[in-house]
What we know:
The protein is mostly helical. The protein is built from five helices and three strands. The protein has a three-stranded antiparallel beta sheet with strand order 1-2-3.
Amino acid sequence: MPQSSSNGARASKSKDGRSTPLWRATFDAFERPVAGASESWLQSQTFMDGLALVLKLQRRANRELRRGLGFWFGTWNLSTGSDVQRLENQIAGLERQVRELRLELERSPGPGHDPVPGPLLASTARRRAPSRNSPNSRNSRDSQDSRESRESRESRDSRDSR
């Protein structure tokens, strides 16, 4: 007679003397013949050919779907996965350049030396615009030129009047 388990399900004795739940015995009785048939089917050449065909069709459908979505996203000015990937690659390249510049700056001598900028530093170096009041600024030069021309006119006029 089957015994009842702690959860109330009936159990039967297995070959090794332990009791198994009734649901497990039913599952095992159904699973054994089905597993044998399915294993032989999975190892057949027909199944492998069908699987290869399905995978090929799935890749083609996925590629066409991406192409169609890319067209429509582009029409509505939305970014696609390839756009995001291209931007990620550009950001990675910029991060690499910043890292190289930082290393180059760390290797350069201290403030007492005038380092010669390398090709990366030369392309990113900023030139400071002269201030308005410096002698090299454009406004200062313009006012100096007009002052000199005014002085030369005045001296020429004073010579002519004598």
